[in-house]
Recover the amino acids of this structure.
C-alpha cells in the first residue's frame, strides 16, 4: 500500500491509476464487443447479451466517474485546502460528505452486479481453443476490467472515503 496522507495526492493517484486507463479500456472493449457481435453473433447469442450488459455498465461508469470528479473529489480537495490553510469548511452546518460517499458506495455495488451477469454469460470468461483473436482479447479485457473495477472500488471505499470522512470529522471537531 502506498503511503499518502494528503487527499489531493490520493485523488491524483486514483485519476492516474484508475479513472484515465478505465476510460480508454471502455472505448476499446466496446469496439471489440461490437466486432464480435457482428462477426460471430449468429453462433454466439451470448455476445449480444454481454454487449447489452456492458453498454449499461459503461454508461453508468461514465456517469459515476463524472460525479466523482466533479462533485465528490472537489469536496475532498476543499477539505484538504481547509486543513492546509487552517480554514473552516463552508458546508460545516449543512451536512457531510457522507451523503455523496454513500451514493458512490451504492454505485460500486451496482457495478458488482453487472460483472456477475457478464461472468455468468461468458462462463467466467472461458475462451475455447478455437476462439478468434477478437473473441480472446475481448474476454481477457473484460476479465481484467472486472479485476480493475473491484480494486478501484475497494480502494475508494476502504481508503479514500475513510480517510476523507476522518479528516472531515477532525476538521469539524476543531471548530
Ligand atoms: Fe473512482
Ligand atoms: Fe467510484
Amino acid at each position: 500500500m502506498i503511503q499518502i496522507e494528503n487527499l489531493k495526492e490520493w485523488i491524483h493517484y486514483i485519476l492516474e491509476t484508475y479513472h484515465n486507463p478505465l476510460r480508454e479500456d471502455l472505448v476499446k472493449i466496446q469496439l471489440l464487443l461490437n466486432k464480435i457481435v457482428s462477426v460471430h453473433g449468429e453462433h454466439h447469442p451470448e455476445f449480444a447479451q454481454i454487449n447489452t450488459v456492458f453498454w449499461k455498465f459503461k454508461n453508468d461508469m461514465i456517469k459515476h466517474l463524472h460525479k466523482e470528479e466533479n462533485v465528490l473529489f472537489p469536496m475532498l480537495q476543499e477539505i484538504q485546502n481547509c486543513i492546509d490553510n487552517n480554514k473552516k469548511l463552508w458546508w460545516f452546518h449543512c451536512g457531510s460528505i457522507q451523503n455523496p460517499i454513500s451514493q458512490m458506495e451504492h454505485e460500486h455495488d451496482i457495478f458488482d452486479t453487472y460483472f456477475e451477469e457478464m461472468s455468468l454469460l461468458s462462463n467466467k470468461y472461458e475462451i475455447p481453443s478455437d476462439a478468434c483473436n477478437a473473441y480472446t482479447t475481448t474476454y481477457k479485457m473484460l476479465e481484467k476490467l472486472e479485476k480493475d473495477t473491484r480494486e478501484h472500488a475497494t480502494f475508494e471505499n476502504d481508503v479514500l472515503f475513510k480517510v476523507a470522512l476522518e479528516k472531515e470529522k477532525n476538521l469539524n471537531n476543531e471548530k
In short: The CA atoms of residues 27 and 58 lie 9 Å apart. The chain has one domain: 7-83+96-174. The pocket of fe (ii) ion (ligand 2) is lined by residues 64, 68, 104, 108, 153, 156 (CB under 6 Å).
